[in-house]
């Protein structure tokens, strides 16, 4: 992305990484052994999906989605053709 987005990108990665490091190093082993392995596995799934979304967002340009004309949205093309 552009250079002016670097500080926001770093902030997003820090806000995701630091709590995740804390959770997976301290909380996850306790939950795995004492409660249930489901919680750390679910947290790992959400962490991977969050990181993959961040990487996708950082590496792609979504562009601008053009607005669809009302004729296409409400499927009125045939009505408009008959009227003209």
Written overview of the protein:
The protein is mainly α and 84 residues long. The chain contains 4 helices and no strands. The N and C termini lie far apart (47 Å).
> Residue share in helices?
over 70%
- Quickly count the helices: 4
Average residue pLDDT: 82
Main sheet: strands, sense, barrel: none
The poorly predicted ranges are none
The Cα radius of gyration reads 23 Å
Helix and strand sequence: HHHH
User: What quaternary form is this?
Assistant: single chain
**First and last CA, distance:** 47 Å
Return the structural class.
mainly alpha
Portion in strands: under 5%
Number of strands: 0
Backbone shape: elongated
Q: Topology, pairings included?
A:
Layout: H1 6-35, H2 38-59, H3 70-73, H4 77-83
Which terms would index this structure?
84 residues, mainly alpha, 4 helices, 0% strand, elongated
Concise structural overview:
The chain is mostly helical and 84 residues long.
């Amino acid at each position: 992305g552009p250079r002016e987005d670097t500080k926001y990108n770093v902030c997003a990665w820090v806000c995701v990484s630091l709590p995740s490091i804390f959770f997976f190093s301290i909380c996850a082993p306790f939950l795995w052994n004492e409660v249930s392995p489901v919680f750390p596995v679910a947290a790992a799934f959400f962490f991977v999906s969050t990181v993959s979304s961040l990487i996708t967002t950082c590496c792609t340009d979504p562009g601008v989605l053009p607005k669809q004309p009302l004729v296409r949205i409400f499927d009125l093309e045939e009505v408009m053709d008959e009227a003209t």
